[in-house]
Specification:
about 160 residues; single chain
C-alpha cells in the first residue's frame, strides 16, 4: 500500500499545483482562454459543478456536498478494496492514480465550490468543447488500470522447496 500512497500524494500535489498555476498564476479565471498550441492544447477555464461532462451539475450546496461525500466514499472503498491486491504493483499504482485525482477534485469543490477544469484538446478537424484537468486524467487512467490489472486470483502462492 506504500506505492499507492506515494502515487496518490504525487498525483494530488501535481493536480493542485497545475490548477493553482493556471487558475491563479496565469489568471485563467479572469482571462478565460489561453491558446497554448492550437488546436492541440488550449487552456479554457471551466468550473464543473457536476461530474464528467457536467452531468448532475447544480450549483446547490446539496449537490456540491453530495458529490464530495460520494468522491470520498468511492476513494475509501477503492483504497480498502485495493489492499487485498497489495502484492500487485499495477493495482497499487492504479488505486493511487484514482484516489489522488479524486481527492484533488474534492479539494476544488471545498475551496472553489466547483472543480477547476482548464485543459482543452482538439485534433483532426474535431473541436472538443470540453475542458478537463490532471485529476480527471488520473481518475480515468486509475479506473481503467483497476479493471485491467485487478482480479485473477489471490496472493501469489509460495513454492515449497524440497
Amino acid at each position: 500500500m506504500r506505492l499507492a500512497a506515494v502515487v496518490s500524494i504525487a498525483v494530488f500535489a501535481l493536480d493542485q499545483a497545475t490548477k493553482y498555476a493556471v487558475v491563479h498564476g496565469l489568471d485563467l479565471a479572469r482571462v478565460q482562454a489561453i491558446d497554448v498550441w492550437p488546436p492541440f492544447l488550449n487552456f479554457r477555464m471551466a468550473w464543473n459543478y457536476g461530474i464528467n461532462f457536467g452531468l448532475f451539475a447544480g450549483e446547490s450546496a446539496v449537490v456540491r456536498w453530495g458529490l464530495i461525500v460520494l468522491a470520498l466514499g468511492i476513494s475509501a472503498w477503492v483504497w480498502v478494496w485495493s489492499r487485498r491486491e497489495a502484492h500487485r504493483p499495477l493495482v497499487q499504482v492504479s488505486a493511487g492514480l484514482l484516489v489522488g485525482g479524486a481527492l484533488g477534485n474534492v479539494v476544488d469543490r471545498v475551496v472553489y465550490g466547483a472543480v477547476a477544469d482548464f485543459l482543452n484538446m482538439s485534433c483532426c478537424g474535431i473541436a472538443n468543447p470540453y475542458a478537463f484537468n490532471v485529476a480527471d486524467i488520473t481518475i480515468f487512467a486509475g479506473a481503467i488500470g483497476l479493471v485491467l490489472f485487478s482480479g485473477g486470483g489471490g496472493a501469489p502462492k509460495r513454492r515449497k522447496t524440497p
